[in-house]
Amino acid sequence: MTYAKILGTGSYLPAKTLSNDDLAKIVDTSDEWITTRTGIKNRHIAADDEKCSDLAATAARRALEAAGVEAAEIDLIIVATSTPDMLFPATATIVQKKLGIAGCPAFDVQAVCAGFMYAITTANAYIKSGLAKKALVIGADVFSRIMDWTDRSTCVLFGDGAGAVVLGASEEPGILHSKLQADGNYRHLLQTPGQIANGEITGVPFLQMDGPGVFKFAVKALAKVAEEVIAEAGMTPEQIDWLVPHQANYRILESTAKHLKLSMDKVVLTVQEHGNTSAASIPLALDSGVRSGSIKRGHTLLLEGIGGGFAWGAVLVKY
Ligand code: ACO
Fold first, then answer.
1. Closest C-alpha residue for ligand 1 atom 46
2. Does 181 share its domain with 142?
3. From atom 14 of ligand 1, which residue's Cα is the shortest distance away?
4. How far is the CA of 10 from the centre of ligand 1 (A)?
5. Does residue 182 sit in the same domain as residue 149?
6. How many domains does the chain have?
7. In this structure, are 196 and 296 located in the same domain?
8. Are both 165 and 130 inside the same structural domain?
9. What is the pLDDT of residue 94?
10. Main site of residence (predicted)?
């Protein structure tokens, strides 16, 4: 049986940071409000000349180095993003060029904060079916570009970043099971409705969110998909060594851990350092867990995430 195994991880956060106190100088908020409601303390903001593909390419190079894989060996590139460099071409092709390679398929997937779950599941299917042997899967977003910096209910929550994994075909267990779901009936809870038409931006080009609505939906959907992916793999929550959740909000990820009866010391937690980095948040957390030495070879990981659409999913991995 062929598995897709994680050969290496990498990540990148822009140098510029914005603390809660910095934000309190821009909008009517406080460190106390943001910390209690979300657990976020800090976020990173891309420089004016830093594009989504720059963040993605740096995270990708770090993952390739960690995997001991040359860029030329990669035969599939998938970038999960909802803040691409441009409408087209796909950011994945721009990353491909930045890595100095050509020829392999390269495309983007867009499932907002669930993007990395969709991208890694797609790459897993390519590897299991023999269509690819070594895949680069990247989550990268620059949400600072779609923030309304006068809206305190959203601008305190998000930051920029990128994370990447190199997946390789292996006889050893890697990705064990995956489950993706979506329900377009809930689109109104979280969207950036603006678009370019006839040379003009029509509609609001900033992120809009019904915070309490998102919270309620996310807590329920994540608990269910996490429970189901574990059960469908014939496993139990006690067998999970690390929960690697989408880092949107401390209270949401704590609620998933509680539902699975996992103690918080089994949860990789990075939300305090960079806020919600959308598609980048799960691979950023994964890379942090791996580089800190917490996540070790042989550990069973549960990755899970949810975002606009709504779209959500969970992936069970033997690291
Ligand atoms: N600072 C101070 N006060 C604020 C701020 C702020 N940054 N933002 C909103 N408020 C005020 C509101 O105006 C409101 O004031 P009012 O009572 O005078 O009207 C009050 O705080 C409460 O507002 P709520 O929106 O009801 O606050 P809530 O307790 O629900 O917390 C939050 C808001 C943190 C956004 C919460 O709803 C949440 O975490 N939702 C999930 C959002 C999320 O994670 N989105 C990410 C994208 S989707 C995903 O990745 C899962």
1. 248
2. no
3. 153
4. 31
5. no
6. 2
7. yes
8. yes
9. 98
10. cytoplasm
CATH number (domain holding residue 144): 3.40.47.10
Calpha distance 297→314 (Å, rounded): 20
- Rounded to whole angstroms, the Cα distance separating 139 from 200 reads 28
Can you give the pLDDT at residue 309?
A: 96
Query: What DSSP state is assigned to residue 234?
Result: T
Q: Are residues 27 and 133 in the same domain?
A: yes
- The residue from 113, 155, 177, 274 that is catalytic is 113
Residues of the chain scoring pLDDT < 50 = none
- % of the chain exceeding 70 in pLDDT: 100
Rounded to the nearest 5 percent, the helix, strand and coil shares of the chain are: 40, 30, 35
Residue 302 tokens read as: 């549960």
Sign of the CA dihedral 67, 69, 71, 75? Answer: negative
Is 44 assigned a catalytic role?
Answer: no
pLDDT tens-place string over residues 105-122? 999 999 999 999 999 999
- Contact by Cβ (8 Å): 87, 169: no
SS3 call for 88 = coil
User: CA 88: distance to chain centroid?
Assistant: 21
**What is the pTM (predicted TM-score) of this model?**
0.97
CA dist., res. 7 & res. 108, Å (int): 21
Catalytic, 246? Answer yes
Active site residue 185: no
Ligand 1 pocket at CB < 6 A: 29, 33-34, 37-38, 113, 152-153, 156-157, 190, 209, 211-212, 214-215, 218, 246, 248-249, 252, 276, 306-307
**What pLDDT shows up at residue 186?**
97
Q: What is the pLDDT of residues 24-40, one digit of tens each?
A: 999 999 999 999 999 99
| Mean pLDDT computed over every residue of the chain | 97
Co-location of 142 and 236 in the same domain: no
Peptide bond into 205 cis (omega under 30): no
Backbone CA torsion sign across 35, 305, 265, 65: negative
Could you give the percent of the chain with pLDDT greater than 90? 100
Q: Which of 18, 149, 215, 271 to mutate to test the pocket of ligand 1 (most atoms within 8 A of CB)?
A: 215
